[in-house]
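[Automated response] Your request has been received and processed.

Submitted sequence:
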Amino acid sequence: MLRFARAAFASVPLAASCLLLLACGDGDSSAPSGSTPDASPDAVVDAALDSPEATAPDAAPDAPPDTVNPADAALADAEPDQGSTSDAEPPATLDTVHVGFRASRYGVSPFPEVSYWPHVAQQYASRVPGATPAGVWIVAESGDDGTCYVGFPGSGTALPNVAHADTDLSESYLDALDAAGAHVWLQVEPANAEVASLIELVMDRYGQHPSVVGFGVDVEWYQSLANPEGKAVTDAEASLWRQTLDQYGKQRTLFLKHWVAAKMPPTVRDGLFFIDDSQGLSSLAELSAEFQQWGSHFSPAPVGFQVGYEADEGWWSKLSDPPGDIAAELLGKIPNSRGVFWVDFTVTKVFPIPK
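Generated structure:
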């Protein structure tokens, strides 16, 4: 299976100041099932869910060794923060199943109006008894130069490898999601930016929104300039990120996303939500089998799934109710599943924009 450049979808750049995004690649738009392009489906499933010890990738030959900043390591070993700097206290995020969308500025064009996203979350959740309307909202995108492009203006001290948009691209949408009672994870594609700093940057900006129940890292784009398909997250890094998010309320969850289990921290599970964004499967049965392995690998930690990719449209388009049928299959077969998110690349096909 071939990978596609995100540039194919990037008809709407993050902002005028972030035009370099047009040269980026995107794992969410193209991540194949497994990491071997020509592997058979069965081999791909096996490769994607091998143990971390067996498959954790090495850095590129000319890249520096994978290390944690000494200051970060010290923080990771410290006692967890006991307070919260946010006035918002969202409910425990994974007590219920969350069903909804994944949204990025490059994934759908033209980008739907504010009212569309609460509509999708509510429409999808209505098909799953007891589900909470939810979404993955991408607030920062990876550039091919190692820069993380954040979708709001900067303030204060500039951060290394971070560039800002001229205007805020998310506030009005989050206001609408607040009003709708939806739950949202704010996701970044970190590139070479320090993740703990991105958590603080984003949560300082949007943490007051009651809809914001967590933060997410697309690991495919973590230090991806030196590490194709992303650097594997260490336990120390995951602990540091979790502790950083705790400053904004311990009920908020941190998701880590990839399609290869070896990219996830080897043992740290507390407070983490593991999302699989695999695609390029041949049928609902094959998708379910692969995602069941992901769920089993991380059990009893909560897991979630991004679905609806164009690479799978050949079979899901033939289902009587693609979003509902896929959610029912995954939630019914994977006991620790807590989220199903339909991707923006095809979302208007299954949830048409209201006229």
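Summary generated for your ticket: The chain has one domain: 6-29+99-350. Strands lie at 98-103, 132-142, 148-150, 162-164, 183-188, 212-218, 253-258, 272-276, 303-307, 337-343.
If you did not submit this request, please reply to this message.
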